[in-house]
């Protein structure tokens, strides 16, 4: 498998005047070409910060405090963490990496027709606008939209259609990696399904190679993800093949998340509230040792003192929990 992007020991903090929020704290992972990775966690687990990290969208007060991020461009790794946000944006956004932000449906300016966004994209990449507009017509068809709607204003399209229009435009330059941050959370069930189909279709057609899908709802991505990153309090607690996690989650937090999916309460699922007792960790002053220990039913003495590392416990399976690292011998 070819690595497309790798993150090594990254720490991304929000440096506020009076405090530092350790939103992503020492995480490492890689994204392979051709895979769909789900990033799952409660609100405040650091998953959106992680998505910003992937495409170096570091806007103050968010700062990359430590670590490296490499993106493969034309067969060579470029260290994007050594570049400014502006440079990464100019060189790689749209072409190599594209993001569908959480608020994509509402991010469009009401006074601009959809075609204007295509023209802007063309201009910023030195492409003839008419050429890209032709491509946009095709792409609109591919995502199930009428190409004539390029001449419409965003408010003339429904929420689900706007979302698809954003995806169509964001993928016009055939980026290798598409990062989608909670793209389905504002949609109804029917539109959620359509959106997942659209994303998978773009991947099958080779328009995008890999997809990172951020969500608080495991149920959304269980049908499409190859691997899953589970975040808790700024840390990756489990990173495994999807089937293995569904078959038997190893980290107690993953078990809790899966149980919340099974809850009959749709309220709990849609709002991303876990059925795990206790409140999410405070990221300004996180708990000592394993950050999950105040909520973990299996917490041992060592869990309060020492931080479990994310280690490979079997092929295709990484877990940060002493239960799976021979805690008794430690
Ligand atoms: Fe629970 Fe300890 Fe494992 Fe953390 S390391 S999840 S506290 S058992």
Quick overview:
The protein has 330 residues and is α/β, with parallel strands linked by helices. It has helices at 47-54, 85-92, 104-107, 114-124, 129-142, 159-170, 189-204, 218-221, 242-247, 252-262, 266-270, 301-305, and strands at residues 3-15, 20-32, 36-40, 62-73, 76-79, 97-100, 177-181, 210-215, 227-232, 235-241, 311-314, 317-319.
The major β-sheet equals:
8 strands, mixed
Poorly predicted regions: 268-273
Structural shape: globular
If classified by CATH, what would the architecture of the largest domain be? 3-Layer(aba) Sandwich
The CATH superfamily name of the largest domain is P-loop containing nucleotide triphosphate hydrolases
Query: What gyration radius follows from the Cα positions, in whole Å?
Result: 20 Å
Count of DSSP-assigned helices:
12
How many strand elements?
A: 12
Structural class: alpha/beta
- How many domains? The number is 2
CATH class of the largest domain: Alpha Beta
């Amino acid at each position: 498998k070819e690595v497309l992007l790798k993150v090594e020991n990254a720490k991304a903090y929000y440096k506020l005047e009076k405090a530092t929020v350790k939103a992503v704290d020492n995480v490492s992972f890689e994204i392979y070409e051709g895979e769909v990775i789900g990033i799952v966690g409660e609100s405040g687990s650091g998953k959106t910060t992680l998505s910003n990290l992937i495409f170096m969208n570091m806007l103050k007060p968010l700062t990359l405090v430590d670590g490296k991020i490499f993106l493969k461009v034309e067969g060579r790794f470029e260290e994007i963490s050594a570049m400014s946000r502006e440079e990464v944006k100019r060189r790689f956004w749209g072409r190599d990496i594209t993001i569908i932000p959480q608020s994509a449906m509402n991010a469009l300016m009401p006074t601009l027709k959809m075609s204007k966004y295509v023209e802007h994209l063309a201009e910023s990449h030195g492409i003839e606008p008419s050429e890209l507009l032709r491509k946009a017509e095709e792409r609109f068809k591919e995502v199930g939209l009428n190409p004539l709607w390029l001449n419409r204003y965003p408010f003339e399209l429904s929420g689900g259609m706007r979302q698809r229009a954003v995806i169509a435009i964001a993928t016009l330059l055939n980026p290798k990696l598409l990062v989608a941050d909670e793209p389905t959370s504002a949609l109804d069930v029917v539109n959620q399904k359509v959106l997942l189909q659209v994303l998978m279709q773009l991947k099958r057609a080779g328009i995008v190679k890999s997809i990172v899908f951020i969500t608080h709802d495991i149920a959304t991505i269980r049908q499409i993800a190859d691997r899953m990153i589970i975040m808790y309090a700024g840390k990756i607690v489990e990173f495994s093949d999807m089937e293995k996690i569904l078959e038997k989650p190893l980290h107690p937090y993953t078990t809790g998340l899966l149980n919340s999916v099974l809850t009959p309460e749709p309220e709990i699922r849609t709002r991303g509230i876990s059925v795990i007792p206790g409140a999410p960790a405070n990221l300004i002053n996180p708990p000592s040792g394993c950050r999950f220990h105040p909520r973990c039913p299996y917490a041992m003495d060592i869990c309060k003192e020492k931080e479990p590392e994310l280690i490979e416990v079997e092929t295709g399976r990484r877990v940060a929990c002493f239960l799976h690292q021979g805690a008794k011998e430690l």
